[in-house]
Amino acid sequence: MRTLKTTLAAVVSFQVADLFHTSAQPILAPLTALLVVQLTLYKTLTSVLDRVGAVVSGVLVAVSVAALTGLTWWSLGAVVGLSLVLGRLLRLGSNLAEVAISAMLVLAAASTSVGFTPGSPDLETTATGRVVETLVGAAVGILVNLVIAPPLYIQPAGDAIGELVGKLSGFAREMATALRGEWSRAAADAFLDAARRLGSEVARADEHLARTEESARLHPRPGPVREAQPRLRTALTCLEHSYVSLRNLSRAVLDRTYFVPEDDLDGAYHPEVRAVLARVLEAFADALHTVDLIATEDPQAGSAHELFGLQFAELRRRRDQLAELLLVDPLVDAAAWEQHGALLAAVDRLRVEVEAAVHPATGPWRPRPVAARPRAAVRRILKKP
After folding, report:
1. CATH superfamily membership of 154-356
2. Whether 138 contacts 48, CB under 8 Å
3. Are residues 220 and 149 in contact, defined by beta-carbon separation less than 8 angstroms?
4. CA nearest neighbour of 321 among 359, 281, 280
5. Helix axis angle, 185-197 to 154-180, nearest 10°
């Protein structure tokens, strides 16, 4: 769909620009349309504003310099320097180079015209044509995105959260299996590294949900996102916190192995303790699967709440069993008391987060107003002495 919209915008903008006779080949219009059509309406609008601002700024710089001289080494340097400074002042970001590019093209095109002199009509024609073609391409890009509204990207966000659930629950089950077997310091170290790598999965899911939220801004039908966002955002926040807790749990298990001889790891965690910890991790993985059903509003979500209640009660029961086994007198073994406490704190955090994941905020979510950032910028300026 995006390919179709981009192609359509490029063709239409070329035809429209050709009607204005801005140049013999108004290729800048379709080029602008090609660049500004983005995945969401909001992204398209911000891209249009940045690109139009860059082109207009560059043209103004070129006109100012060309009014004094043609294209020389020092005028080129002045154009590039002034353009980059102006682009940074306007905070054009990725379009910063476009200011200098536009200025150089206008100056070069006007200077190569027959009979060019500073301030000649050729300069005005070239500058005006470049601005008009940019505006045409930008306008057509916005129009195409309005007529063929982009999707709201709810499904990709739900899929990304589901994949993250699979990664976290899979990690928990793998660690549970390893805890029941021949445990070693190397295995504990490997699981800590694996837990750290889960951070990229969390970031990926967050990017998908951020795109979903952005797609609702300026969209003619934002209702589905407003309804789904509280569930998805709450679930993702709790999954992110669960990832941190799994990492802390892995670190606590590894740290304990350094306080006993490497050939006597049963002294770190007795096999019975490891077995109960494994059952805790399995109960957490089961609850996570149900969280995914509730967050993405699966057809089975109606019965999922009841199932989750049973799973959460089992998770809490197994946590209490683990706490009894880890009970130690701090006066007898202060290190064990502290490390067991860190392990239980991580388990408790998992329990709290998995419960919070099924209780999203009440009421629909509303996207941040488009004018919120400009208003905040104006307020900051007015507050300055």
Report:
1. Phosphate transport system protein phou homolog 2; domain 2 (1.20.58.220)
2. yes
3. yes
4. 280
5. 180
* Domain ranges across the chain: 2-147, 154-356
77 CB-near residues (< 8 Å, 6+ apart): none
Distance CA 42, CA 48 (A): 10
Residue 57 in contact with residue 83, Cβ under 8 Å? yes
b/e code 61-99 from CB counts within 10 Å (16+ = b): bbbebbeeebbeeebbebbbebbbebbeebebeebbebb
CA atoms within 13 A of residue 219's CA, in its CB half-sphere: 24
Q: Which residues contact 19 (CB under 8 A, 6 or more apart)?
A: none
At 107-129, the pLDDT tens digits run 776 666 544 455 555 667 777 88
- Name the token pair of 97: 């180079």
In the numeric block, which tokens belong to residue 308? Answer: 């989750």
- What's the Cα-to-Cα distance from 348 to each of 32, 91, 296, 323, 359, rounded to whole Å? 54, 45, 25, 10, 18
- Tens-place pLDDT, residues 341-375: 889 999 999 999 988 888 766 667 777 665 555 55
**Tokens of residue 12, six digits:** 């239409």
Closest Cα to residue 361, out of 215, 177, 237?
Answer: 237
pTM of the model: 0.75
Phi and psi torsions of 22, nearest 5° = -70, -30
Cα–Cα distance list, 157 to 41, 116, 234 (Å)? 18, 56, 13
C-alpha dist (Å) from residue 198 to 138, 167, 180, 194: 40, 7, 23, 7
Mean pLDDT of all residues in 2-25: 88
